[in-house]
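Quick one - inputs below.
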Amino acid sequence: DAKTTQPNSMESNEEEPVHLPCNHSTISGTDYIHWYRQLPSQGPEYVIHGLTSNVNNRMASLAIAEDRKSSTLILHRATLRDAAVYYCILRDSNTGNQFYFGTGTSLTVIP
Amino acid sequence: KAGVTQTPRYLIKTRGQQVTLSCSPISGHRSVSWYQQTPGQGLQFLFEYFSETQRNKGNFPGRFSGRQFSNSRSEMNVSTLELGDSALYLCASSQLGTANTGELFFGEGSRLTVL
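Output:
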């Protein structure tokens, strides 16, 4: 099982950018990098995903290292509603929807 | 468009009993997967169903089982409940049958307490 390593917790000031790191040194060529977040008392929600190139969407940006052994989720302007646990997940295209969630990073946004 | 619906939201059982949880995926989604979330173990994959067939299974004992119906609704069952089965059980649906790019949509979960 491909594993990811994330810091347990991070803090950010409101309206400032946040860079959430993830290490995945054992990533294989068929693994997609996905990010989900879980707000309190809710199920996880999709944030972004990518394979090799950097990706942007309305929620965030995903920067993937050239060797793909690490990635960074970037929230451009943190809001209080971004306080959540962020999961970096490797999703093997060969094993269906069998996501391996780590412990995630608990993001605190300070007003 | 209605989201993923899980029922019941909360339930309490005693050791030795069995429980059935239900999940209605987003209309048009054919893949349903189940996860167990506990404070100690985090989110762990249970199994995935696609078009009524189990495609993947996580490392859980045989007491955990599931099925999917022709309308894509899914149920999971836990027999002979143990205290350690107390958890939030999350269901996720996906439109695509293949793994590459399909986004998972999660329900709010069923919180099971075993006494």
